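Subject: Sanity check before I submit

Could someone independently write out the structure tokens for this chain? I want to compare against mine line by line before I put it in a report. The sequence has 329 residues.
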Amino acid sequence: MSAPALSALAPFANGDTVIGPDYPPAPECRPQPGVPAGTLHAFVMKSGDSKLYPGIRRLENEITKRRDAFGNRIAAAEHEQSIAAPYNRTVWVYVPSGYVAGTPAPFMVVQDGHFYLSLLPTVLDNLIAAKRIPALVAILIDSGGGDAQGSQRGLEYDTLSGRYSDFIESEVLPRVTAKTGVTLTGDPDGRATMGVSSGAACAFTMAWFHPERYRRVLSYSGTFVNQQSPPREQSPRGAWEYHATLIPAAERKPLRVWLEVGARDLHADDPEETWHNWPLANQRMAHALAAKGYAYRFTLSRDGRHADTRVLEHTLPDALAWVWAGYGG
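---
Independent answer below. Compare away.
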């Protein structure tokens, strides 16, 4: 698949940037001498204990294997695409060095937590020590498994509703406090969400539907495309609706959003009418946010691929610092 020419994409707004094609890791991605390390805790959540997500698994049949002319999976009816199935999910909790018990801590919820385990704690150690971000707790949580339409991960991450945020609020955060002893702030300005791919769309969804809970969003290769399944009447094109209808039609919300996408991200050659072109969808997100006056930053990565770890290691420290700018604690 060839990447689209930059001139073929939407015009750039002020503050949007193009980076690459070389991506050396930022120095904050490596342990630095004299920097104290935070503590990493882990625990497992079982589907049988969840009232909101008891668990599903995608069926593999002729209906769920359907693709359109560009290779995009076509959503099936709920009863045709999945069945009840149990899952276990792991949650890792990073607690910064020097945390004082009882102190309300700012925190960040990170989808697909395993993806960041080898990187994020070190970056946080270094940024906190340099006072570029507050001394925050990071909750790295895995999905319930699978991917895309019909899966538990797809249900959690690609659905445009407040359900996943409710799950985090009512079932995850209390467990974090019970397992680690940390006190988590209730101030929405001290709560951030982060993810890659569908986890990034989920991060935005958490803040969009509940800005009284979350106001800072960090998105890599966001799946702001038509991947919601089962379909919902309120958002017939899934997360494509964010930039097509929802953001333009709504009053500006008190959100701060950092977005990245690779020029060679998924379905980069697909025409707009497929509602499944990742680079185009993310640029449209940037323009929708800019038009409404949001605090946002958008980065297009030359030669960047989907969920490109080179880009992540190159940009994450500065992205985190930008997302947390202005937080007063």
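---
OP: Matches mine. For the report I'm noting this point. The chain has eight helices and 13 strands.
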